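The pair is quoted verbatim underneath.

:::
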Amino acid sequence: MTELMREPVFLTGDSAVCEPLAHGEDIAAHFHDFGQLRYAASGALVTTTQAGTWVAPANRITWVPPLCVHSGRSYGATDVRLLRVPAALVGQLPTEPSVFAASALLREAYLAMLGEDDPSDSPRARLLLDVVIAELARAPQESLRLPEPGDPRLKAVTDLLHADPACSATLAELGHRTGSSERTLSRLFSRELSMSFHQWRTMLRIQRALLELCEGASVTATAMRLGWANPSSFIEAFTELVGQTPGRYRSTARASHD
């Protein structure tokens, strides 16, 4: 989920509706000179940049600023609806990729926009886009970004964890496997990623849990598969970061598929 193409493609346009993406399908790294909103009507979409990874299950909207190089991957059968935001109108939105929860008004205005002409040529389309941007500016932003390191010593450790999020090795043990000291790695986590090793691994596991729950996995099975000692500790960590229990999240995500 973390690797970008060496030479991303510049795209001048996108259709409003992508072809349905199969589970595990990759979207090659690219960028454009306009902002882009990405809404998964079903499934889940992961957006990756050199700065980090964002997970957006159904009923979430991902924002990608102009000129931001990004790639993606689908989880489950994913129906993605894309909306272009002209560079002149992005001032109210964040300067880095973000994920927002979609209110009913935001979702309906967003979907209504997909059949419209260019906002610069259509008063109705511009009005709908203004509604979308205004709603996004006040929508709750999900703080589930997983930052990615640049330092090769730290990347060697995070690559191991990406390959096996359930890995229970200590930072000292991972350092031994990758040739770095625990002290050095701990300092790099703090300096580069602004979080501890434990916080980073927990965020990685929560992101993977979002995807598994979205696909219908049980709370207990997800907790065990991703390395928590028991379901209670998983529920506590998930609720703290996501703002709702994994059981409630699973129910909401599955309902949005129906």
Summary: The radius of gyration is 19 Å. The beta strands are 9-10, 26-31, 35-49, 52-57, 60-64, 70-85, 98-101, 146-147.
